[in-house]
Amino acid sequence: MGQAILQVQGLCKHYKGVKAVDGVDMRLNQGDIYGFLGQNGAGKTTTIRMMMGLIRPSSGSVKLFGEEVGKGSNAVLRKVGSVIEYPGFYPNLTAIENLDLHRRSMGIKDKRTLEESLHTTGLWEARNRKASNFSLGMKQRLGIARAILHGPELLILDEPTNGLDPMGIKEIRLLIQELAQKRKITILVSSHILSEVEQLATKVGIIHRGVMLEESTMNELKHKNRQYIGLQVDDFAKSQALLREELGIRDCRMEDDGWLRIYDDDRQPGEMNRLLVRQGIEVSSLVAMKDSLEDYFVRLVEGGAARG
Amino acid sequence: MLWLMLLGALLPAMLVLFVAVNGISHDEPFRWAYYFDMQVQIMGMLMCPALFSLLIGYLFAREFQERTINNLLTGPHSRLAVVASKFIIAIPVLLSVQLLTFLLMLGGGFLFPGAVDAFTWSMLADEAWKFCLLLLLQYALTPISAAVALLWRSYIPAMGLGIFAVISEMIIMQSKYIMYYPWSATLNLATNMFPDRNSASIGYTTMAIVCVVPLLFIAAYFRRADVHSG
């Protein structure tokens, strides 16, 4: 386990009796790419705002680099770069002017940092364009350029792929990976797009209705994800009934993606295939598969909802 | 912002010019002394309260509207430093408007040849001093506009406050409470329009209260407030 960069303990935020964030614990170690997962309104942004000192927790604590965020934590924020929700810029200034303003406010003397940031984010060619003329994807990258300008050790990105097209999403993903690998920045990225986080994160925290349901490394999560046999047949209801009655398979369900999933480790695929074909059912696909992060997330959230 | 400043400077200059033209068309001779008095009165009564409130509101609320506030407040600066920097940057902004207005008005005066009284440097110095005093006193009122803009996170309420200030000031000017009302006190301190009601001690006390109370409010509120914009 690496050195703790960010530690959140029992973090709560209540608004007029509504628990927006309820007892969240998190730990980011050096070198992590932490995927902070949750549906819209789950409490991700509120948690991040508390981490950055933008809003005050009702209770609990946030420690950045071992120092509690709150009064007098300004110096530690120098080690953090962030893009929270939507990157705001002065629209009448160019990209490089916006970055230069940030450079001066951070007290950075070296102007080469502007060039480095713009090159890293692929915006060097657009440096003299006004921020108001930037697309959302470019603004997201400019936001990241600004966030990394002062060479932070921790980068916090709140929904950086929100509203982007698939190409834009891919560009941001590659950029985040590059920052983690080349600049050795520890990254926290919040998202509700699970497939993105799955490709990116080394550690995942899943928040639902303000409650942290799970925090584990991606490897641990992969081990937890169950294997199943996926079937595509021409008659799902009959197949489901047959598998239950003839083979005693209990955990067999029809998913929205058009697959019949059988979660039963003991059964052999051949046995199922033979049974279905014998009964006149056409089996077009039969594969051994593993739950994706999305499946796991849905299971967890449904479980959390049932508990709640 | 630049356009707002230019327009804000041009408008009172034009207004003073029209008043002077109107006077001449009614066979009233052009007098520098009257022209200068009119300038300060129009600035103090109409333009400064409305325009300065709008400019200050814009300076503060724009960070919320452009969502740049997140970036400002997640930097290694205290929130009070951010607010203080806004008040500091307001000085050259308001000074530029005031200076530009002064120069435009002054230039406008030379469009009227054959003034009854002679243009003198002491007259100009007196006028410049009044403009400086007006700027200083109006600057002391900016914390109210800033507080309103921060509270609603928009410059519209600050603009509304400016309009309210103009209207209410005109009403209060008719009463004996001139020095108890910040905007009318500002005008009377700068122009001495009503010498019999011009109590500097009451006026400056009013100004000090109106300056300090909103500043304390801003300091307390902004330090504690949750920032959601963006």
UniProtKB/TrEMBL annotation, chain A:
Protein name: ATP-binding cassette domain-containing protein
Similarity comment: family membership: Belongs to the ABC transporter superfamily.
ABC transporter domain mapped to chain residues: 6-234
Keywords, alphabetical: ATP-binding, Nucleotide-binding, Transport
Organism in which the protein naturally occurs: Paenibacillus sacheonensis
Signal peptide: none
Molecular function GO terms recorded: ATP binding; ATP hydrolysis activity
Top-rank taxon, per record: Bacteria
